[in-house]
Amino acid sequence: MTPDPVYDELPRHGVAPLWRYFGNLFPAQPRSRAVPYVWSWHDLRPHLLHFSKTLSLEEAERRVLMLVNPALTEPPATVNTLYAGLQVILPGETAQAHRHASNAFRLVIEGSGAWTTVDGERVHMSPGDLLLTPGWSWHDHTHDGDAPMFWLDALDYPLVNALEAGFYEKYPERLQPVTRPDDAGSRQFLHGRLNPAWRSPQGLNSPVTRYTWTETERAFDAIADSAEGSDVDGIVLEYTNPWTGGPVMPTIGCRVQRLRPGFEGTGRRHTASTIFHVVRGEGATVVDGTRLDWAGHDTFAVPGWAAYRHLNTSASADAVLFSYSDEPVMNSLGLYRCEPADPQA
Predict the structure, then answer these.
(1) How many CB atoms sit inside 10 A of residue 195's CB?
(2) Mapping DSSP to helix (H, G, I), strand (E, B) and coil, where does residue 161 land?
(3) What is the pLDDT, as a whole number, of residue 345?
(4) Which class for 272: exposed (0-12), middle (13-18), buried (19 or more C-beta within 10 A)?
(5) What SS3 state is found at 211?
(6) Spans of the chain below 50 pLDDT
(7) pLDDT tens digits along 61-109
(8) Are the beta carbons of 147 and 165 closer than 8 angstroms?
(9) What does the angle CA 148 – CA 294 – CA 270 come to, to the nearest 5 degrees?
(10) What backbone torsions phi and psi does residue 6 show, to the nearest 5 degrees?
């Protein structure tokens, strides 16, 4: 076929022929750039301790190792819309107050005696606690304990930046003043279906500032072995906004699941991208033919539309996984789709 010279003229006019791009613009099914990957807590904890001794928080502002998906290095992300990082703070340290448009939370891994102040409310930390930092909330950290404190950081900045809606601001002082009672959001709202009647819903985020691990374990203990659970996710619970019953944040949904000893899940895939963190136990997740073996406090990524299934490789102990995903975004846009799928392997 004789080349058509008009094609060479089109870029000069700011246009392109749709017929040459049709297959890329409208794929038959989603193709995530992210790949399945697991980050080892055993390997990364020593590196965090190293930088805690060689890098001050005045230099770093946040001493965090980003969990970067090998296929999402520039800009760095863990899955296409979400980010995870591991943060450490030492006794006596404080972290600069700042705020950003991105929603964030932290899941406490190890340590005691630290708190984060969110819009004037001190929110204390214990292992397993889920602490929310809604977008554009001032937040800083203080550690008054006697050993290093570690937590998992989570943000939706890959999504926010892709939408070109990111803002960031430092507080004029290192720490913001405390203006509310400690753990007020948790103490007022973390009582099942009993909400403060004198308060009215504000915004799209959950008013619970800390979902304590004590309450989460109490829920698991109450459910015990009497619940059938999911053949995909075991005994799976969702952290919810008490005002709406929906996700804790408009862009991030959080769940926690118990896999009984010897659990072998069936396969599934969905359009939501998911990051898992191992609260305790050991096992494996097969993702599109790749086996990700995991143990306590490891973190792993399951890209959107990847087929996966979970395995608890212990015959005597539970495995507990915390996860967060962009499912609320997919649902709000009418893009969430889920179906059984065989990850093979």
Answers:
(1) 14
(2) helix
(3) 66
(4) buried
(5) strand
(6) none
(7) 999 999 999 999 999 999 999 999 999 999 999 999 999 999 999 999 9
(8) no
(9) 115
(10) -65, -30
